[in-house]
Amino acid sequence: MTNHIKVERAIKNITQEELARQIGVTRQAINSIELNKYVPSTLLALKISRYFGKTVNEIFSLEDSD
Amino acid sequence: MTNHIKVERAIKNITQEELARQIGVTRQAINSIELNKYVPSTLLALKISRYFGKTVNEIFSLEDSD
DNA sequence: TCTTTATGTAATTTATATATTACATTTGGA
DNA sequence: TCCAAATGTAATATATAAATTACATAAAGA
Question: How many domains does chain B have?
Fold first, then answer.
């Protein structure tokens, strides 16, 4: 699984810290998710989805390895 | 957060066990998710999304309490 | 170059998702 | 009514998400 949160952040021009604040998690959580260090919960994905105004499927996607 | 996996299953007319098998988790995992006992990972949500041919956002949704 | 801001990373701890095994309950059909 | 399938539930174990704290690095501007 991968994601393009980094791109979405770039579009909105906000930092990891600001996104973390808006979503209600730590900056490290956002950083780790961006770098695919772990898979976020669906709750978190939905909050990110809501913040960026895009579906979870538009932001996160399955890979062949999944 | 809530979901209507149960409805999607009813539409496809499959059991929790069959869905679990298709997705690659245990039946208890599906059961617990349907009953909102815990929040699945985004990976699992995407697999469920793919299986039902609907977006994660169509199947899972945030509630006021989230 | 110095400073600041953003990002990457690492260790430890805590909460919780998921597996496993097993049993109870419900439901629908024969 | 009986039986079987489907679903609900529970206990324990394991894996991992996320918090916390802290430090290192990178980048960009003064």
Answer: 1
Q: Is the ipTM of this complex over 0.90?
A: yes
Is the C-beta atom of A28 closer than 7 angstroms to strand D? yes
The tens-digit pLDDT sequence of chain A (66 residues) is 999 999 999 999 999 999 999 999 999 999 999 999 999 999 999 999 999 999 999 999 999 888
Which of B42, B50, B55 lies at the smallest CB-CB distance from A42?
Answer: B42
> In the structure encoding, which two tokens stand for residue A12, read together?
């909105």
- Evaluate whether residue A66 is within a structural domain: no
The domain that contains A6 carries what CATH number?
A: 1.10.260.40
> Which chain B residues are closer than 8 Å to A41 by Cβ?
39-42
Q: Could you list the residue range(s) of the whole structural domain that residue B14 is in?
A: 2-53
How many Å apart are CA A42 and CA B24, to the nearest integer?
A: 17
Q: What is the largest CA-CA distance in chain B?
A: 32
- Evaluate whether residue A15 is within a structural domain: yes
